[in-house]
Design a protein that fits this description.
With 438 residues, the protein is of the alpha/beta class. The protein is 46% helix and 16% strand. Helix 6 (130-143) links the parallel strand 4 (117-121) and strand 5 (147-152).
């Protein structure tokens, strides 16, 4: 039986009216379709006060910018990207191409073909999210994507040097200092200077998310992203201070980021909440973490861990951190999550910043039906067929004819009939005077 020690505010209180966002995004996208680069520049000036001579950074520009980044920062970026690259390479190796002979002379196969061109959006805004470059560029390159176009906005009129360095080191083929809907739309529809891509990946604000939603279908996207989420499952052995720190680590993403604790220990729950109250006033990102915890924080007290895991599955949270005596039990007990972080030695922030798994994960319950961004997202698994045995083709032709006529698809049926007639001498009643199997 669950007891809720802290609840979210009413959904009616926190619900945002998306109509204004939708209208603005639609207008920007359609204008960029019509006017191309001219519209891109207009919206960059309007929203970011940014209008350089060229949004594309030349190789020389990139070299100069990267040279301004401290050596330790570059070393850290390289190490983190190495971790991401290594895991993506292992993922790629697990994806087996195959060809099987399902019956004599009938060969069926599958191949994995990389997407030709992808767009990586690396947000700026409140934080320079260099990690998004690792997740969207490195992973695409491991998959074999030929052209990765990366966009990031200026931050308060300045070039985000560390972000540019991250995109460059990750292997981006083109880097544009361009942000917001105008960047996403330009990559999706193509302009005079920005090549059209086939898939968009990367997080962003509500306007970027809405742009990806509207453009989905015209291009592929990684995920429909919502606010960052964390859910902690804790038992009596959990350290309440660690619980508090880890909940706040994700709450700082934004004022609407849910932070949920499910625990079997009332003591852990009460102490964790008390620690949060003490930590928040001095937290540099309290303007984000404070409202997130106040309005979207939840604490649930349950009887046992089985109930904890069942309740956690109903959230289908983006990040689930397991602070229990036997954390690996969650691998057996849980089904709905974007990523699991097992034990006190692990934390969600590792996944966000450095450990190597991809941090682009499903939110708003989408973990019930999808996983996060991974190397396979940049690949198209395609099939092929070949029938080399005439008798096998004749048998399939007869089967195809019967199966197609069940569905009243006469044209399909006739394709099968022709093989049955040509390879086995079957009658062809619908064309007796036109075609002779001989």
């Amino acid at each position: 039986m669950s007891q809720q020690l802290k609840q979210t505010v009413s959904t009616a209180t926190v619900r945002q009216d998306r109509s204004d966002v939708q209208h603005v995004v639609t207008e920007v996208i359609e204008d960029i379709r019509r006017r191309g680069d001219e519209a891109v520049r207009h919206y960059s000036e309007k929203f970011d006060r940014w209008s350089p001579e060229n949004f594309l950074l030349s190789d020389e520009d990139v070299e100069k910018i990267v040279a301004t980044v401290p050596g330790e920062v570059l070393d850290d970026l390289r190490e983190v990207q190495s971790n991401v690259r290594t895991f993506a390479q292992h993922q790629l190796a697990s994806m087996r191409e195959l060809e099987v002979e399902t019956q004599p002379g009938v060969f069926l196969g599958q191949k994995h073909l990389p997407i030709a061109a992808t767009g990586a959006y690396v947000p700026g805004g409140r934080y320079p999210l260099t990690a998004s470059a690792h997740m969207t560029v490195v992973t695409a390159k491991v998959a074999g994507v030929e052209r990765v176009t990366a966009c990031t906005p200026p931050i308060r009129g300045e070039i985000p040097a560390a972000t540019v360095a991250a995109m460059h080191l990750a292997g981006a083929d083109q880097i544009f200092l361009l942000g917001g809907v105008q960047a996403v739309a330009a990559m999706a529809v193509g302009t005079e200077t920005i090549g059209k891509v086939d898939l968009l990946a990367g997080p962003g604000n509500a306007y970027v998310a809405e742009a990806k939603r509207q453009l989905f279908g015209e291009v592929g996207i990684d995920l429909f992203a919502g606010p960052t989420e964390i859910l902690v499952v804790a038992d009596h052995a959990a350290d309440p201070f660690v619980v508090a720190v880890d909940l706040l680590s994700q709450a700082e993403h934004g004022p609407d980021s849910p932070a949920v604790l499910i625990t079997t220990s009332e003591q852990v729950a009460r102490e964790a909440m008390a620690h949060i109250d003490r930590l928040l006033p001095d937290m540099p990102t309290r303007d984000m973490a404070g409202p997130a915890w106040r309005d979207h924080g939840q604490v649930h007290l349950v009887d046992d861990l089985d109930e904890a895991y069942r309740l956690a599955d109903t959230f289908a949270s983006e990040h689930v951190q397991v602070l229990t005596e036997e954390p690996r039990l969650a691998l057996e007990k849980m089904r709905n999550y974007g990523a699991l972080f097992l034990g006190e030695g692990t934390c969600v922030s590792y996944g966000d910043k450095c450990i190597g798994t991809n941090h682009v994960l499903p939110t708003r319950g989408a973990a019930r039906y999808t996983g996060g961004l991974w190397v396979g997202k940049y690949l198209r698994t395609v099939t092929y067929q070949e029938v080399t045995d005439r008798a096998a083709s004749a048998r399939l032709g007869e089967l195809c004819g019967r199966a197609a006529r069940i569905e009243l698809f006469e044209g399909h049926a006739r394709s099968g009939d022709v093989r049955a007639a040509k390879y086995a001498g079957a009658p062809l009643p619908w064309a007796p005077e036109i075609y002779s199997a001989g």
